Amino acid sequence: MEKKSVNLGLIAGGAIVVIMFVVDIIDNHMMVHFAMSYFPTLLLIVAMFLSAREAKKDYNHLAFSDAFKEAFIPFMVGNGIYMIFNYFLYNFIDPELGDIAREKALEIFDNGVFDNILTADQRELMIETTRENTFRPTLGQSFTGYLFSLILPGGLVALILAAIYRTRSKPSFTEADSDEQ
């Protein structure tokens, strides 16, 4: 069954890459939109759900640990593909995305979102730090982000799906099984 989980992860990761690449070609300003930051996660959660559902169909008894593994593998594989693509997208394919992300971040300050939270000095320091940031992920940042995402949301969603799809009753023994024991 793990093969199905890996395949779902590969399909989800590949779909994310293709869709994000097409969106970048059409209008790269859409890449830094709020919805695009959650799109990969939502697609990976769908793959996790499908994998857990398929595992439930394939096994007579699905232990919690097996249900967790089947739900977690697609996220692990698909998110790895997405993070590698994201690194190459921002650093090599379309380096302009970093500048667009910086502009979007500075717009938040212009809209006054932090005016009531930060002092003027803190606000100026954050604006200066934002201007200096390249908004292009390094390999270390990509790897750290990948590892963190394995916990939240990957591990958390896999735990929830495992709790839902596990078999709640012990496997029943037939009379022939009980005679042998």
From TrEMBL:
It holds the Pfam family DUF4199. The chain crosses the membrane at residues 7-26, 32-50, 71-90, 143-165. The keyword NAD does not apply. Keywords: Membrane, Transmembrane, Transmembrane helix. InterPro entries: DUF4199. Signal peptide: none annotated. This is DUF4199 domain-containing protein. It comes from Membranihabitans marinus.
